[in-house]
């Protein structure tokens, strides 16, 4: 017992670090085989989990998307509550309240004529805010790496924390917002655009009605609009320009809301300045796996290691 009660107060910080490092190596000496098993378990679990998720998504996309959305919503909440990240919890609460109201409106039947426009506006606003926040966060991180923060006398650790936080906020709410937008778009897809004067849905879509928001189209396809143009798909159904763009970018739909005709994104986004919005949406789709399922897989790996007695 006396060997462990050594006075380290006379040692320098560097000597203390070396001593702790030597103790750690002594503790794990001879455990190389165990560490190899743990790495092998991690790799096998990641491969199997990826195959299971891909098959699940292909065979049962609705249940996969619903469970993934729930994971995206709850998993960060658990970790941020544990770490006492109150600013994130406040923004998460505000987002949840507003999105819950919008989702409630989107799932009511019969669908009110003003609901699609409300749903579209909220998720488009959320998408633009998340996009701008992510870009600002990424720029701050890059400026910090190049030392530009020193010009403004900002500590590197403070600037990096600020940039990473903004990047996290932008990516997280971008992913979550797109998933909720897709869910609302799926629910409204069977009723949007089919409105009569009484507000009850009908089976005929007039040529003067937008199939996304259900509002009248005031600008002819051949005319140049002041605020927005009118867009006609190859199936001859017409839409407000911003509505069909929101349907494709925010709601992740690449088909006509009325007849499921394929939408030509290259024709819609001919302006090179608009293409980054499409790429940003694809990035959000890829990050969904990291946020929703990666913590679950890592937890599963740790559970397997615990059952097998590996440390």
Distance between the termini: 24 Å
Average pLDDT: 76
- Uncertain segments: 1-5, 193-201, 271-276
Q: Note the total helix count.
A: 10
The whole-angstrom Rg is 26 Å
Q: Output the strand order for the largest sheet.
A: 1-2
Counting helices, strands and paired strands, the structural category is mainly alpha
- Give the strand tally: 2
Overall morphology: elongated
Strand content bin: under 5%
What are the secondary-structure elements, in order, as H or E? HHHHHHEEHHHH
Task: Summarize the amount of helix as a percent range.
Answer: 55-70%
Major beta sheet summary: 2 strands, antiparallel
Protein topology:
Layout: H1 13-27, H2 32-59, H3 61-82, H4 86-106, H5 115-145, H6 156-188, E1 230-232, E2 238-240, H7 241-249, H8 265-268, H9 275-292, H10 294-307
Antiparallel strand pairs: 1-2
Helix pairs in contact: 2-3, 2-10, 3-6, 3-9, 4-5, 4-6, 5-6, 6-9
Domain RING-type: 210-260
Keywords: Membrane, Metal-binding, Transmembrane, Transmembrane helix, Zinc, Zinc-finger
GO molecular function: ubiquitin protein ligase activity; zinc ion binding
